[in-house]
Design a protein that fits this description.
The protein has one domain (2-198). It is built from ten helices and no strands. It has helices at residues 2-28, 51-67, 70-73, 78-89, 93-104, 106-112, 117-133, 144-153, 164-175, 177-184. The N and C termini lie far apart (56 Å).
């Protein structure tokens, strides 16, 4: 009984994590052909085979396991949890196999990251995650963090009572994952914050 309850909770957590990633994609692709209006959203074809996206997804999952799901990471159900996240994301069998290799095979990971996009996706996942949960260390040296803070300071309230922390999360996502999604899948040539002097 206890085992079944634990498995059920792990499956719920896997779905919550997958939903968080998909919601990030939905927001980042808003006003594109994939998300023209609220409620109408389709994932771009082969998005999970994109090198940057694979780095972002893999590392975002890993960070959640490290910080919030340690009991799963250190248990025998870790592989089942990852599979459940991938399944809820809608990964194909080939994509699940790819992601598994990226996690376990250093040579494949190195070849996949030949142009640095996989590492960039991982770094952007880290920055978004740290903003979401305010867990930056005092040694944080990313050049994007000061930019995100500047954008957040000038960001208007949409619903009237957004905190600076909420605006900072939005700003960091706009500089990283949203920007990538818009340019590589949404057909945008110039990013929203490419010229920060105009903010």
């Amino acid at each position: 009984m206890f085992f079944n309850t634990r498995k059920k909770k792990e499956k719920e957590k896997a779905k919550e994590l997958a939903d968080a990633i998909l919601n990030t994609f939905k927001t980042g692709l808003f006003n594109t052909k994939y998300h023209k209006t609220v409620g109408q959203f389709t994932l771009p074809p082969n998005i999970f085979k994109d090198i940057y996206i694979s780095g972002f997804v893999e590392h975002f999952i890993s960070l959640n396991l490290n910080y919030f799901y340690k009991e799963i990471k250190t248990s025998s159900s870790n592989a089942d949890f990852l599979f459940d996240v991938y399944r809820n994301l809608g990964l194909s069998k080939d994509e699940i196999e790819l992601y598994s290799h990226l996690l376990t095979n250093e040579k494949i990971r190195k070849d996949w990251d030949a142009d640095g996009r996989y590492t960039l996706g991982k770094e952007h996942a880290r920055l978004c995650f740290c903003c979401m949960f305010n867990i930056f260390t005092i040694e944080e040296n990313s050049e994007l963090l000061p930019k995100a803070k500047e954008i957040a300071k000038k960001m208007p309230n949409i619903i009237g009572n957004e905190t600076f922390e909420v605006k900072l999360i939005t700003a960091m996502c706009e500089l990283t994952i949203y920007d990538y999604l818009q340019k590589h899948f949404g057909g945008v040539l110039i990013g929203k914050h490419d010229n920060l002097t105009e903010i």
